[in-house]
Amino acid sequence: MKLFIDSGNIKDIETLAAIGIIDGVTTNPTLLSKEPGDYRDNLKKICQIVKGPVSGEVTATDFAGMMREGHDIAHIDSYMVVKVPLTRDGIKACKALSGEGIRVNVTLCFSAAQALLAAKAGASYISPFVGRLDDVATNGMELVREIVEIYDNYEFPTEVLVASCRHPIHIVEAARMGADICTCPPAVIDQLFNHPLTAIGLEKFLKDWEKAHEAVKA
Ligand code: G3P
């Protein structure tokens, strides 16, 4: 399963990308509006850092506007993926942009029916928002299971990009279900590394090593 960073923060992206486990980045208007500087320059920098798919989202809500902004975003860098919302105009723009060879990530997906439409429109990625479903007392991961099943049934090439991940269990469940990608905020990726037994075990190994060497020296 691929791991994307869900952030527009250059420093956080640099830090995690340097470890060598990051496959791409997703952004949205909320995330990019938190960062200083021109968003196009920031997206370009992110592409240079990760050298993998980087999603930038349109803010237009009509077909013509989405096409205009989609072309703009696609021209920033060859790694750019155009993110469109799952609306009628978004699905129409997805079909048109995909037809031109531009990769599209269809975002704000909250049902399997919506995911089916995105696949039919040639989306490269579908983004079900699991955390936001959990927030309204609906099991977000069940939606991922349904989408994986439907896409497998028809061999749709659209990749399932699990978004709105809030904790490591979302990521582990997504991997067990066979989702293609999880996109996570930097803090959630940091959590993946941690286990108290790893910390305790390492401390003991180092202490024992030190003791043995002190004994040899004495
Ligand atoms: O990738 C979508 C993601 O940014 C939404 O996450 O935590 O705002 O629901 P969240």
Structure described in brief:
The protein has eleven helices and eight strands. It is of the alpha/beta class and 218 residues long.
Outline the secondary-structure elements.
Layout: E1 2-6, H1 10-17, E2 24-26, H2 29-33, H3 39-50, E3 54-57, H4 63-76, E4 80-85, H5 88-99, E5 104-109, H6 112-120, E6 125-128, H7 130-135, H8 140-154, E7 159-162, H9 168-177, E8 181-184, H10 186-193, H11 196-217
Parallel strand pairs: 1-2, 1-8, 2-3, 3-4, 4-5, 5-6, 6-7, 7-8
The structure holds SN-glycerol-3-phosphate (G3P).
The site of SN-glycerol-3-phosphate has 9 residues, from helix 7.
Attribute tags:
17% strand, 218 residues, single chain, TIM Barrel, alpha/beta, binds SN-glycerol-3-phosphate
CATH superfamily: Aldolase class I
Bound molecules: SN-glycerol-3-phosphate
Largest sheet: 8 strands, parallel, barrel
**Oligomeric state of the chains?**
single chain
In the predicted model, the low-confidence regions spanning at least 5 consecutive residues are: none
Mean pLDDT: 97
In total, how many domains does the architecture comprise?
1
Task: Work out the radius of gyration.
Answer: 20 Å
Strand neighbour order, sheet with most strands: 1-2-3-4-5-6-7-8
Q: Which architecture name does CATH use?
A: Alpha-Beta Barrel
Please provide the ordered H/E string of secondary-structure elements: EHEHHEHEHEHEHHEHEHH
The helix fraction, in percent, is 55-70%
CA-based shape? globular
Number of H/I helices: 11
**CATH top level?**
Alpha Beta
CATH fold label: TIM Barrel
State the secondary-structure class. alpha/beta
Overall strand count: 8
Cα distance, first to last residue? 51 Å
Beta-strand share of residues: 15-25%
